Task: structure prediction
Amino acid sequence: MIKTMYKNAILHKYSKRILLAFTISLLVTNSISICTECKRTDNSSILSTGILEILGNSVLPITAYAEEGWPQASFSLNSEGAILIDADSDAILYEKNATTAYYPASITKVLTAILVLENCQNLDDKVTFSYAAVNGNLEPNSTIIGAVPGDKLSVRDCLYGLLLHSANDCANALAEYIAGSNEKFADMMNTKAAEIGCVNSHFANPSGLNNPEHYTCAYDFAKIMQYAIKNDTFRAIDATQVYTHAPITKYPNDDDSENTVYAHHHMMRRSYKEYYPGVFAGKTGYTTLAGNTLVTACNKDGMTLICVILNGHNSQYTDTKNLFDFGYQNFKSLEASSYDENLKKLTSNLKVNDIQIVNTLGFEIPSSYHVTIPAGSDFSSVTGAISYDLSDAEKTDGSFARITYTYGDRSVGNAYVRLNDQVNYSPNEKDSISSSDVDSITETIPESISVNYSDPMRPTVSGQLSVDSSDNHAPIVLNQKEGRIEVQKPIIRLLLILGAIGLLSGTVFGIYYLLERREEFIRRRRRTRMLKHTNDLSRAQKARRDLLLNSRSKRSRKKNKN
Result:
C-alpha cells in the first residue's frame, strides 16, 4: 500500500515532465520521418519518350458494385433505326438497330458541310455553279435554290442553302469547289467518316440522293453529328432560322423572296408544334427509299444529347421527342474530373530517384469529359479502366492515357489524362503539352521519376528517361515562369523544419517553466505586498508577521511533497 502511494506520488509529481518528454520525442520522430521521406526505394521511372505508362494490369480501381439497373424505355418507336447518345460522354442511352444500314437522305449534308468548313479558308470565296451541279447530279423534284450554270454565290451562302433549305444544287456546287467532282468529294466523305469512327457507312454523293452505295447507320451518324457540333461555324449556321443569300440569275432582285431560305427542322422553330426547348442543331431528310430521317442535337439540364432517326414513317419528330424526354428524365451527366479521386492518389507520392519531388507533377482530366449514369446512381457505381495505348491523334493535346468508364457492362464515358501541375495549358492553344514537349523539358530531370499509390497492390507508373543528371539526389520543382523543371537542394526545407521544431520546443519549455514556478511566483508576490504594507508595525507585530509567513511557506512545501 505504501509502495503504491509512493509510486502514485512520483507519477503525479513528474507527470508534466513525462508529458513534455513524450511531446518532444513525437515532434522529433515526425521531423525525422519528413526529412527521410525522400529516401524510400522505388523502381519506377518515366519513359524516354516522356509518356507515362502503367506496369501490369491497366485498371484504375474505382469503387464499383453491381449494376443498379439501366433505365428502359416504356415506349416503342415507329422508326426502323434510332439511337440516343450523350455527346459529352459517348454513352449510348437508347438504341434500336443502331448499326443496321439505312439510306440517310439529306442528313448527309451534315457531313458535307463539315468537310467544306474544314477545307475552305475563306467563306467569302465564290462558288461557280456548273451544269453538272444544277442538272446532271439531281433527281426530279429535288430541293434546290434555283441556280443556273454560271451563277456564283459565296461559300457562306451555299452553306446556308445546304443546311437550312437542304438545297441539292448547293451540295453539288460545294463538292465541286472543294474536290473538283462529286466522286472525289465522296472519297473525302468516306475518309472523314472513317476518321470519326463510323463502322457501317459509305457515301456516294454530297446530297444524300438515293444510291445503293450510299448508306449509313444510326450509330455512325450520331458520331458524325457529335463531330460536327464541335465546329462553331457549323453550329452558328445550323441554328439560323432565316437567311437571305445573294441574288441569282433566276431571282436577280435583292427583295425577291425566293432568295430567302428557312430552316426545315421543326423542333428548332417556335412556330411549329414540334418545337423542343434546347434543340440547337439538326438536319431533316426524306426520299421515297429512305423514308423520314432526322438528326437532332439538344442541350438541356447540363447534358448534350444527340438523337438519330432512320427510316421513319412520318413519326420522326414524335420519336425524337420521346427519346429526348427519356434521356433527360432518366440520366445525368457528371464531370469526370470532379468525381474521379484516383488521380489525386496517383500524384500524392511522386518521386525522383527515391526522393520526393517538392511540387508534385500532377495529372488532370479536362473538364470537357463526362460520365453519363442513371439519375438515381452516383459516381461510385462506375468502374474505370485506364489504357496507355493511344494513337498519335489522341496524343496531340498532351494526353498520355485514356480512361474508359463503365456502368455494369455499358460504356458510359471516356476521359483522357495529361500531365498538369504549374504548366499553363489551354485546350485551344497549339503549345499544349505533347510527347515532344515532355521530351524538351527533360534536360534537368534526374534519371528516373516514379509515381506510386500508397497501396502497394495498386499499379505503378513507370518508364525510363534517356537523359542522365548529375544531381541525382536532389528533388525537382517546376519553374512556371521559364516553363521547365529544375533541380533544387533540400537544405532550405531542412532548415525550415529544424527552425519550426526549435520554435515549438522553446514555446513548450516556456509554458512548462511558468507552470512549474507558478506557486513560487504567487508566494513572492504575496510576501512583497505584505512587507510593503507592514513597514510601520512594531517589533512584536513584525515578529508575528514573519511567523505567519513562515507557517504558510511550510504548508506550501508540504503540499508540494504530497
Observations:
- Residues 39-62+340-482 form one domain.
